[in-house]
Amino acid sequence: MGPLKGRTLGSIGPVWQTTAEAGLADYPDIEIAISDRPIREGGRRTLFDRVRGLGRGFRRTMGNEDARRPTMDVGVGVWTEDQSHAKYYSLEDVQVAGDVLIDTFAGRRVLVYFAPGARSLMVAYSPASSASWEGDDLHLTTGHVLSRGVLRDAQGNRVDLDAPLQVFTRWYGFSLTFPETEIWRP
Amino acid sequence: MHRVVLSAVMFSALTPLSVAHALQGARWESFDSSRVMIRDTTFWIPFHVTETTPLRQAIDDGTIGNDTRILIVERGGNRVALVMDQAAYHHVIQGEMNGEPWMVSF
User: What's this model's pTM, rounded to 2 decimal places?
Assistant: First the structure.
């Protein structure tokens, strides 16, 4: 073992999946790391069409699957820093709920929504008791409006989004990482 | 209901995106080494980040498009964006932010 045995990298914060345009709107000064690999614009569709499940070789590296959701189900998983709480929201269920829902996670109210610009599920802490869409803008009962990933208060001032640790992922990945995760049920 | 571009969504979540925390605690202690695939060579080359470019510049000069899928990683109040398509190839991306090492697997 090396000299760093026993040490860990520690947690990183939320991992957001979004588009370059929406990411820039959220964080105008952010920098991007680009490798020397070609970027396949549209290639993602080809890969999706080609890969609809997991290969046997990959499955051999996995633990026992959690059958509460389909293996390749897509959703957003959240967890607390101490890993005492984890919860999964299926994209399918959030869509049925109207692309937004209010829930409680680890004792705090959360807003779970499908971000149209980012085209992914996101979770944010919010005291709002309900939320509704007006086009692509999400209006909260607190008077806040979430538009293109940017949260503004009733006066139009930008407000930092308070969000739990989260990842937009396949069910198998999240459930294997957090075997005791809760699942949001409609 | 908003339109879902399933291809993008499904691809972006094609593989579990785990972060460093997954190596902590009890799960690390119960790690089953018999499930590890060990080979002499690496098929996918990890990406070690040594430099970054302003996202605005990368869009303006056409290096990436407005619709390019990206990941935004936060650590210690700092953020860096990664190209999701490249993350899907490299599988492991690592670097430092303000002297603090970070690693993302995809």
Answer: 0.78
